[in-house]
Design a protein that fits this description.
This protein has 485 residues and is an alpha/beta fold. The protein has a single domain, classed as Alpha-Beta Barrel (TIM Barrel). 38% of the residues lie in helices and 12% in strands. The structure holds ligand GBH. The site of ligand GBH has 16 residues, from α8. Its EC number is 3.2.1.21. It catalyses: Hydrolysis of terminal, non-reducing beta-D-glucosyl residues with release of beta-D-glucose. InterPro entries: GH (IPR017853), Glyco_hydro_1 (IPR001360), Glyco_hydro_1_beta-glucosidase (IPR017736).
Length: 485
């Protein structure tokens, strides 16, 4: 892959999420999440697909862990399902927690570090019926759920992530409507955004206390963090003030509305001004920002693409962006609904996302320069969807996904050489899976899943990733490897 050395202890892994792989949507006491309910809304999900069976990981977990071991993964990033652990947000469901307990044991037995995410978009539907993330009380319910998972797994799981991509589960779910719960109200999206931040802070505080207080030799052994999806907003014409302002607005909503409360303890003034008509400040109570801005041990970065942003309408002949279904949606950008995303004509993945590995390098370097209080970074997701072909010999020669992977891993290494403190990389995704509003139509796996037989086949990209990990580990600097984070 490259002859340069990787920092000692750099962690290689792969990621999944509960609703995307587990299936068993109504087994052993699990109740509906908002994605189970959303799948029943006509035309919400491409092909009428549902997460009911997904890739049946709930029943195939030991084989899937064996696959991870065969690939040489050092860590596995998975999420727990709130609706399985506390169905309807009532009492703890032992059977649901037992599944995760078995998973953790299986991982540890295979020498794989469990990297647990508490919320990857699957709110219990019962809580949605009480307002979901627009209801401040949901933040406190999240803290209780986090403590229940910690009670069961805190003796074996060290690495905890509160939220995966709160941008998506707030603005895309409540303002844009492409994701569950499919609401299309700008103010609801902003309420969800703040309440998820609050939930993060409450959970971090509760988990630290439950595990012995602040980190330190005698204190908590936990490593706590959050994962954001960070996307660079590139002005279409950097000499045009209208495009520059559009890029500022989108950078604010995609990135700074999340980074700044967490790292600086304040929402960015310019974005507060952009969303003024929605009275965002009413959601922010005294003391909330101190709760939100507690120190974290790592920041997870999910990155897929950057985007070209303009403040002008698209030309009439511009190709329409890919949409999972033709169900009407709204803008996920409160106060900046007019912004457009003109194509730069670069090659795209099957999601229509332009491929630009330099964008990942530049993002990581920018974060390191602009936020002095930035904790160590982990790439908690990066990957690509392509329309795979199973050849007659059964092989999946997914050369584009392999190239995407190599180029983005190289971009991470360049960022490190330019000073970014990146400690690990998780490819999205281990398995083809339920790609949210796209259903099973888009495949991100480095392992192919035949959705009829549930058979798993390592793709060429998966074999390449296994070789890459093995090679990277032999080029680690000879200093003894520190523990991750
Ligand atoms: C991630 O989503 C998820 O964590 C994962 O579950 C999923 O399977 C994977 O990526 C692949 O999709 O603000 O409306 O202009 C994040 C990918 C990147 C999609 C940012 C939405 C912004 C759209 N997201 N993008 S918008």
């Amino acid at each position: 892959m490259t002859n340069d050395r990787w920092p000692a202890g750099f962690l290689w892994g792969s990621a999944t999420a509960a609703a995307q792989i587990e299936g068993a949507a109504h087994e052993d006491g699990k109740e509906d999440s908002i994605w189970d309910a959303f799948a029943r809304v006509p035309n919400a999900i491409a092909g009428g697909d549902t997460p009911e069976t997904a890739v049946d990981h709930y029943h195939r977990m030991p084989q899937d862990v064996a696959l991870m071991r065969d690939l040489g993964l050092q860590s596995y990033r998975f999420s727990t399902s709130w609706a399985r652990v506390k169905p309807g947000d009532r009492a703890v469901n032992r059977a649901g927690l037992d599944f995760y307990s078995r998973l953790v044991d299986e991982l540890l037995g295979a020498g794989i570090l469990p990297w647990l995410t508490l919320y990857h978009w699957d709110l219990p539907q019962a809580l949605e019926e009480r307002g979901g993330w627009t209801n401040r009380d949901t933040a406190y319910r999240f803290r209780d759920y986090a403590l229940a998972v910690h009670d069961a797994l805190g003796d074996r799981v060290t690495h905890w992530t509160t939220f995966n991509e709160p941008l998506c589960s707030s603005l895309i779910g409540y303002a844009g409507g492409e994701h569950a719960p499919g609401r299309t109200e700008a103010r609801a999206g902003l309420a969800a955004l703040h309440h998820q931040h609050l939930a993060h802070g409450l959970a971090v505080r509760a988990l630290r206390e439950a595990s012995g207080g602040a980190r330190g030799p005698a204190g908590s052994p936990l490593r706590l963090g959050i994962t954001l999806n960070l996307t660079t907003a590139v002005p279409n014409d950097p000499a045009d003030p209208v495009d520059l302002d559009a890029a500022r607005r989108i950078d604010g909503l995609w990135n700074r509305m999340f980074l700044e409360p967490l790292l600086l303890g304040a929402y960015p003034d310019d974005v507060l001004e952009d969303v003024r008509e929605h009275r965002f400040e009413e959601f922010v109570h005294d003391g909330d920002l101190e709760v939100i801005a507690q120190p974290i041990d790592f920041l997870g970065v999910n990155h897929y693409h950057d985007d070209n942003v303009s403040g002008h309408p698209l030309p009439a002949d511009a190709p329409a962006g890919l949409q999972p279904t033709d169900r009407p949606k709204a803008s996920p950008f409160p106060g900046s609904e007019f912004v457009t995303f003109p194509s730069r004509g670069r090659p795209t993945t099957a999601m229509g996302w332009e491929v630009n590995p330099d964008g990942l390098r530049d993002l990581l370097v920018r974060l390191s320069r602009e936020y002095p209080s930035l904790p160590p970074l982990y790439i908690t997701e990066n990957g690509s969807a392509y329309d795979d072909v199973v050849d007659d010999d059964g092989r999946i020669r997914d050369i584009e996904r392999e190239a995407y992977l190599r180029e983005h891993v190289a971009a991470v290494q360049e960022a490190i050489s330019q000073g970014a403190d990146v400690r690990g990389y998780f490819v999205w995704s281990l398995l083809d899976n339920f790609e949210w509003a796209w259903g099973y139509a888009k495949r991100f796996g480095i392992v192919h899943v035949d959705y009829e037989s549930q058979r798993r086949t390592v793709k060429d990209s998966g074999a390449a990733y296994a070789r890459l990990i093995a090679a990277a580990r032999t080029t680690e600097s000879d200093r003894s490897a520190p523990a991750p984070v």
